[in-house]
Amino acid sequence: MLGFLLICFLIIGSLIYFVQSVKRRKLKKAPVDNKKLFGKWTPISFEAPRPVPYPDWSVETTRPLPYRPFKYGPDYFVTMGIKRLDWNDWIELDNEWTKYHNTKLARLSEDRSSRLYKIAPEAQDAALETMELLSEYLVYRYPSLFEYQYNNEQKQIRIKTTGETYPIYSDDPLKYASLLIQDDLALMMEG
C-alpha cells in the first residue's frame, strides 16, 4: 500500500513539474500597435556597423562554413533559432562564389531574364538602400574581392577578379546586388 502511494505521488509530482516547465517555455506575444496603419511606418535612423575584413579570405581557397543547426547534448530544445545576428556574419562568401556568379550571369543573359527579378515601384527606395548597404558591407568585409570605383561621378562597386563594375544607384539595384553574392535576394515590404 505504501509503495502504491509512493508511485502515485511520484507520477503526480512528475506531471505537475512537466506542466510547469511547459508554461515557463511559452513565449510571450509581441505587443500589437493598433494605431499603426497597415503598410505605413515611421522610418528609423540606422547606421550599419562597419564589418571587419574576413581574415585570410580567398575566392579560390575559402571553403563553405559548416552548417550546424543542432547543439550537442541532451538538453537541446528545437526552436526557430532566432537570435541577434553578428554583423560580420551577415553575408558569407566562399570558394564557390565564381560558380554562382557565372550561373547568374548566364541566366540574366537569356531571353526570359526580365522575369527573374521585379521591383514594385513603391519598393524602389528600399531596393536602392539594400544595394547601398550590401555593397558597403562587401567592400569592407571582403576587400580582396570588392572595391569602390568612381566613374563620371557615379559610385560603382567593382569585382576585382572579373573586372566587372556595377552601379550602386540604378533602375535595377536588386539585379546588380544579386550578382554580388551567392544567395538569392527577396526584399519584402508590408502593404
Description:
The protein is α+β, with helices and mostly antiparallel strands and 191 residues long. The protein has a domain at 117-184. The chain is 31% helix and 8% strand. A three-stranded antiparallel β-sheet has the order 1-2-3, with helices on one face. A hairpin with a 2-residue loop joins strand 1 and strand 2 (154-159). The longest helix is centred in the first third of the chain and has 24 residues, at 2-25. The mean pLDDT is 84. InterPro entries: HODM_asu-like (IPR021848). Pfam families: HODM_asu-like (PF11927).
SSE blueprint:
Layout: H1 2-25, H2 97-108, H3 124-141, E1 146-151, E2 154-159, E3 165-167, H4 173-178
Antiparallel strand pairs: 1-2, 2-3
Summarize this entry quickly:
The chain has 191 residues and is α+β, with helices and mostly antiparallel strands. 31% of the residues lie in helices and 8% in strands. The chain has helices at residues 2-25, 97-108, 124-141, 173-178, and strands spanning 146-151, 154-159, 165-167.
